[in-house]
Amino acid sequence: MRIVIEDIPDDLGSEIALGVLALVARHSPVAPGATVLMESDWTPERAAHLVRDLPARAVNVLRHVVDGSGWACVETLRGPNGEEAWKGVNVTLANAVARGARRGLWPAGIHVPLTPTAHPDEDRRIRGYAMPSALVAVFTQALTTVAGEVSLNP
Questions:
Q1: For 137, which DSSP code?
Q2: Which stretches of 38-126 are DSSP H helices?
């Protein structure tokens, strides 16, 4: 038996894992090294739902971050002529993630996949957007899936 817990809130720590293992052990033998899986992070299906719910400019930012292996600086996001819109992406993403949680597409409290990084010399100036490396492959697959759907439906 293999059970894995991921993304446990820091304040609960290993208490949840030990509780789940104790519960399972009451009903069947648990092999040494057993782990518990709690599905509380982005999957390709969840990511595709998010991509479908985002406006084109937010998808463009997401695509740049994925293409940059988890990072896109504002110069890249502005485009070659400096005219691309990238501001307001934080609110757009947060609202889309909240909508998906209300619809039951993913658990409430799932993390927004992009994180703005501030300029070290200026309080509110964003240098770019980052994505955890573990999510890059997930969102690459989601972007590919959604792009295939769009090309199939003219």
A1: H
A2: 44-53, 56-67, 74-78, 89-102
Please provide the distance, in angstroms rounded to a whole number, between the alpha carbons at the two ends of the chain.
46
Neighbours of 129 (CB within 10 A): 26
Q: Is 146 helix (H, G, I), strand (E, B) or coil?
A: helix
Tracing tokens 């595709």 back to the chain, one arrives at: 48
Rounded CA gap, 65 and 128, in Å? 9
Q: Chain-wide mean pLDDT for the chain?
A: 79
In this structure, what is the dihedral angle of CA atoms 57, 59, 64, 65, given to the nearest 10 degrees?
Answer: 120
Residue 116: its H or E element:
strand 115-118
Predicted model pTM:
0.69
